[in-house]
Structure formats: structure tokens, C-alpha cells
Amino acid sequence: MDKTTSGWVNGFLGVLIFSGSLPATRVAVADFDPVFLTVARAAIAGALALVLLLAFREKWPKPGELVSLVVVALGVVVGFPLLTALALKHVTSAHSIVFVGLLPLATASFAVLRGGERPRPAFWLFSGLGSLLVAGFALLQGVTAAPVGDLLMLGAIIVCGLGYAEGAKLSRTLGGWQVISWALVLSLPVMVVLALATMPPSFAGTGQSAWLGLAYVSVFSMLIGFVFWYRGLAQGGIAAVGQLQLLQPFFGLVLAAGLLGEAVSGSMVAVTAAVVACVAGAKRFAS
Questions:
Q1: Among 142, 155, 182, 233, which is most exposed with the fewest C-beta within 10 angstroms?
Q2: How many helices (H) and strands (E) does the chain have?
Q3: pTM score, two decimals?
């Protein structure tokens, strides 16, 4: 398997894992405070990352890499989880799909600004069309009017796109799983203190589904998904592989159908096919 193909495979696996993030967060914030959920998931993932780094005796990041790691931490360890958790107190996970549809464009934009990539004009055409298809499909499913939630989700997309692009750029020298691991470890002391400070006095009213949601976003969304995602972005190109995020909302719907027995409509299949075509077009004109 060549490097570019490997990048798309790794990126696909990362997106598949991330697909359960918003539904899991939605379930978790039903019983957990959004701030506690954010710092707790980062603390749990950070502890696991520290064990991995020690077990493999990874070298410390260079001083010049620390600034990028801080940007990654602020974007994907703190910013996106916190803003989405707060937003999902106001909007449904279905509503958030509108904004997830903008994430590939945000990632591609930061790939140009921070990663030095220069996709061809046709790339932006396919990327924009794919984003419009995802957003349009989500709007047709029915969304609620919640300006606060919308602003929080928009902020989440911006900081996430920056964190993705910055982490992918750093992955070329530091390594994919090492980037997210070091970002988590840098955040760990603060996250542990904040987790203890925001911990509720009792977990008596916390349901099993909320605990499962916390476990998913801590282990899969916060750590394992990024192992594949950053490797994929570094190998296949940030702007190009980032377009795979257009499939994330539909993966979430497929998971809902398989696990929850929800119906999959013909329109979903049609739009998914069109989005796949946009991703293929973006891949072709990415460089």
C-alpha cells in the first residue's frame, strides 16, 4: 500500500471512530456537567497517553514543537470538546450535523494557512459542494432554532479545524499518535485539577448510558481516533484526507440504524453517494 492510499485508509478509520463522538457526548451531558465532562475525558485520555509514551520510551518533543502541541491541545483536547458539550445542551446532535459539514472546509483552510498546502481551484469546488450537501441534508431533517448553540458549534468547528491542521503538520516529524499523546500529557496536570474541582458531590443519579458516553469520548474520540486521523492527514495531505469528514454525519446515521434500529431513508443513501463523489473529486484535485 502506497503512502497516499495508506493515508486515506487511516483517515477513513479515524472518521469512523469520530462518528460516534457527538451522539456519545449528547448522551453524557444528560447526566454530566459539560465542563466536568470535558476535563474528565481529557484527564482519562491523558493518563492513557502517558502510559503509552512511557511504555514505548518516546523521546520528548523539541522546544520548537511545544507551541504547535499547545495549539493542538487548545483546539482538540479542550476547545472542541468543551464547545460541543456546551452546545449540545442547547441543540440536538442532529442539529450539530449542519456544522460538522463545515469541518472539512475549516480543516482545508487551515491546511493552506498553517500546512503550506495549495489545492487546485477544483478542489474547493468539490469541497464546498460536499459541505452544502451535508448541511442541506441536515436542514431537511429538521433543526431547532438555538442561536447560542449555533455560535458554540461554529466556534467548535473553527478551533477543531485549526487543531487538525496543526497536529497533522506536526505529525510529519513527531509521529501521528505521539502528537495527540503529547498534547494530552501537556494538558494532563490542568485537566486533573479541574476534574477534581468540578466533580459532582455524588454520582448516584448518573445513568449507565452517561458512563458509557464518557468512556467512548475519553478512549476513542480523544485518543484512538486521533492515532488514525493524524497519521492519515500526514500521509495523504491535510486538505485532501480532511474531506473524509463529509462522511462523518452519515456514518453516525448508519450506526444509529444498526445499533438503535432507526430507519435509513432513500434520501440518505442518495446524498451519501453524492458526498462520496465529492470526496473523490476533492481527492483528485487536492494537489
A1: 142
A2: 15, 0
A3: 0.84
